[in-house]
């Protein structure tokens, strides 16, 4: 494990402090910060709207592929991050759609298997459950 010199440690803590300051600032200052780091933002009003909707922290996660120690890869634009956000949203919708199909299929396979072996009201018979009274709700009188 390497230790940081006092100058490096001070620089690192200032960098962390600046990051926290920027994350807590308003969208106009956030846009300015991104531009200072080399991000091309032709429509600052649109960028501010996006930042109000998704937040700087989330937006920066989509800029990670373009990150360099000095800022962002030359030519990187706000639109690049927006395209990645749209791709992420589309991918998420496809995955969730597939998960729903799998969930319904597995549930139906279990129900069908139990139905064929134990009859129509198999779910009402405590013998089919490991601890049948664990989730039993007894109405109070």
Automatic annotation (TrEMBL):
<protein>
    <recommendedName>
        <fullName>Abi family protein</fullName>
    </recommendedName>
</protein>
<dbReference type="InterPro" id="IPR011664">
    <property type="entry name" value="Abi_system_AbiD/AbiF-like"/>
</dbReference>
<dbReference type="Pfam" id="PF07751">
    <property type="entry name" value="Abi_2"/>
</dbReference>
